[in-house]
Amino acid sequence: MAAAIVERSATRDEARQAAQAYLNSRITNGTTTGARKPFTVPEINIAPSFSPSLSDRKAVAAQIRDACTTSGFFHITGHGISEDTRQAILTEARRFFKTLPQERKEALHVKHSNYFRGWEPAEYTYVNPDDWNAEQQAPETKEGFNWGYEEGLDPSGGDGLYRELDGEKVNGNVWPSESDLPGFYGVVKEYYGQVLSLARHLFRLFALSLGLPEDEFDEMITHPGGIARLLYYPASNDPQPLDPNHKDKEIGLGAHSDYECFTILLCSSAPGLEILSPDNVWVPAPAVQGSFIINVADFLMRWTNGVYKSTVHRVVNRTREDRYSIPFFFSINYDQMVEWTIRRSILRYELVSMY
Ligand SMILES: O=C(O)CCC(=O)C(=O)O
Ligand SMILES: [Fe+2]
C-alpha cells in the first residue's frame, strides 16, 4: 500500500514520487500475485444474501471471496436498488455537468474546500502523471463532483460521532443551491442512502467471506467514510481501439487503485472502465445491465494481508457517447483503530483458509 511508503518519505515531493513509483511498480509487475484462478469479472447475484438462512448468505460470501482473491472486481445483481433510483442519479449527473452554468460550478470548485469536495474540473487533477508524457500532454477528460458522508444522508441517522479525516466534526460537503438545480440534493440523498445501506450489507458478506462473524465490522461503520463522486467522461471525438501499449491519446481517468475498503460503482451504458490483469493487459469491464461493479480497495487489501486484491484500473471513453459514472468509496469510521483487528482477522483468515 502506498501509505506505508509515503510515511517514510521526508518531504511532500518525495512522498509524491514514492507514491508514483509504487503505482508504476504495480503497473509494470501486474497487480496481483499468486492468482491461481482465471482473471475474470464475475457476475454475482446477491439476492440470496438477504435470506434468513446463514448458509444462503455464506454461499454468496464464497463467490465474493473467489472474486476478491483473483481479479478483485465483480458485478452484483439482485442488490435491491431499483432501476428508477439508479437512473435518477445518472440524470442528476447529466444535469449537473451539462446544465449548471460555469460560474455556479466555479463557486463549488474543489480548490475552495479543505476536503476536496465540490466541482473538480477535468484539467485540475490527474491520478497518474505518467499518462502525461512529453508527446501527449493531454489532461484527463473526466469532470467530477465530490461529496462525503453526512448524517443527513445516512438512513440510520448515524451516531453523532462522524469526523472528517483530519478529525474535524463538521462535514465538508458543498452543494448546488436548490434554485440552481431543483431536486438535486433529494435525488443524491435517496441514492446515497440506499448505496450506504448496501455497503453495510456487503461488508457483512465480506466478513463472512473471510470466515469472520457476520457482525465483525458492524461497530466500525456507524459513521463511516463514504466519499462519492459524479463523474462525466465526454464522448470521444476520435475514438481509438484499445491500445495494448497503453499509449492512448485520451485518458478519462488514469491508472490507479482505490484506497478505501471497497467501491460500489454505477455506470451509464457507454463502456470505458478497464482493469489491469496480472500479465499487464487492460481488460475492458463494461457495465452489466442492472448491476453495480464492486472492487476491493487498498485498505482492505492491506487488512487482509494482500489476500484480497485491490486491482489497478483506469477509464478511457472510446465511444461517441457521453459516459457518466458514480463511484462510492466505502471506508470504516475514519477514527476507528484497526491495529488489533488486523491481527485478529488475519489469524482467523489463516485458521479458516479451507472455508
Ligand atoms: O468511472 C469509472 O468507471 C471508474 C471511476 C474510478 O475508478 C474512480 O473514480 O476511482
Ligand atoms: Fe477507481
Keywords:
binds fe (ii) ion; disordered N terminus; binds 2-oxoglutaric acid; 4-stranded antiparallel beta sheet; 355 residues; Jelly Rolls; 8-stranded mixed beta sheet; single chain; alpha+beta; disordered C terminus
Question: What do these coordinates show?
Answer:
The chain has helices at 2-7, 12-29, 54-69, 83-99, 102-107, 184-209, 298-303, 339-351; strands at 43-45, 73-77, 118-120, 143-147, 224-233, 253-256, 262-267, 273-276, 282-284, 292-296, 313-315, 323-333. Mean pLDDT is 88; it is low at 1-9, 31-35 and 351-355. The strands form 2 sheets. Strands 1-2-10-7-12-5-4-3 form an 8-stranded mixed beta sheet. The protein has a 4-stranded antiparallel beta sheet with strand order 6-11-8-9, with no helix packed on it. The chain is globular, with a radius of gyration of 20 Å. It contains 8 helices and 12 strands. It is of the alpha+beta class and 355 residues long. It has a single domain (43-354), classed as B-lactam Antibiotic, Isopenicillin N Synthase, Chain (Jelly Rolls), CATH 2.60.120. Residues 256, 258, 313 line the site of fe (ii) ion (FE2).
The description of the largest β-sheet is: 8 strands, mixed
**What's the CATH class, please?**
Mainly Beta
* Fourth CATH level, the homologous superfamily: B-lactam Antibiotic, Isopenicillin N Synthase, Chain
Order of helices and strands: HHEHEHHEEHEEEEEEHEEH
Number of strands: 12
Provide the CATH topology.
Jelly Rolls
State the share of residues found in helices, binned by percent: 25-40%
Give the ligands present.
Answer: 2-oxoglutaric acid, fe (ii) ion
Question: What's the average pLDDT?
Answer: 88
What is the number of helices? 8
Catalogue the unreliable spans: 1-9, 31-35, 351-355
